[in-house]
Amino acid sequence: MIMWVVIMWVAIAFLGLSLFYLGTRIPYFFDAATVTSWTKMKTFLISSWTIIGFMGLITLCLDFVNAIICALYFAMIWAVSDFTFFLIQKVFHFNLGHYYAGWVAIFVSILSLSLGWYLNHHVWQKNYTVTTSKDVPNFRIAMFADSHLGTTFHADGLKKHLDMIQAQKPDILVVVGDYVDDGTTREDMIQATRALGKVKTKHGIYFVFGNHDKGYYGSAHRGFSAQELVQELTQNGITVLRDESVLLKNAFYIIGRRDYSEVKEQGGKRASIHDLVESLDRDKFMIVLDHQPVEYNQEAEAKTDLVLSGHTHGGQLFPFNQVGKWIGANDLVYGLEKRDHTHFIVTSGISDWAIQFKTGTKSEFVIIDIKSNKHHKK
Fold first, then answer.
1. Could you give the count of Cα atoms lying within 13 Å of 130 in the half-sphere of its Cβ?
2. 124-372 adopts what CATH topology?
3. Per-domain residue ranges for the chain?
4. Which tens digits make up the pLDDT trace of 345-365?
């Protein structure tokens, strides 16, 4: 918790510096004679009101969180542009005369954030193939995480993505946490879960909780409790796993873990991965569903075969993609990694929590084909 408080204050400090820096750039758009004639107060007011207008417009169109993201991005790109044009003028010994650095910064910022909006609000299919020496039949898993229902799409939008998943004819579909959020309405949750329950798979749909699924502000805030979510999922034929495992085709274990937030944020407990697999047949392929990509060393030591996670949103924003790993909050931010014989896959998520831009990744659902090198067929 202390780490996140520190991160919050660092972010606030960067926001302050970014807004100050952007404010100092505004006078450069005017000719030198005009700026010279201004009083300090006039310069301050013009710069301040420009920045306030910028923040206000984005807050009105989106929200304050995304206004902060845009301000940070503009400042970062602007600083790079200023430095680049400074070097150009120093190296080639000439003065451009106009503030081209500012116009380039505005253009590149708008372009990159527009691309980030597109990458966040459109969903791609990501494919992986995992091979195993275990004597198991070929098996196809469809996975999505971090839908945060109501952020970039509602129930009807989820249904369209589920149709894309259905077309891949998965053996199972797994939902690896943060299916709903505090902003999800009860009606949206019900309609989305009904659509989810209609996906046809050979061996069912499995769900594990993420840190947002139980809600941070109580059931009254969004109109349903975590238990009501479980009831709705169960009524629609979806299996909720909380430190539990099921055996499929006498070859695959699906092991669903309680979310790490129950330990880290709520003072609760979750079973260790060693306890969860202790009584399982090691000749069978063990698939672990664990929303947050943590405890990789333990999961590798327990000799699980495949661990599926979300939570990180793929690092979300360039160039900050790897921050979660650098500060030790996550073992992997995105993609596929192998430790010993355990494969780990982290998805960037099918949607988002609050930030409406993905500049370092894109939204996705995942298809994973498990194939035995013994060449068994379905």
1. 27
2. Purple Acid Phosphatase; chain A, domain 2 (3.60.21)
3. 2-119, 124-372
4. 999 999 999 899 999 899 999
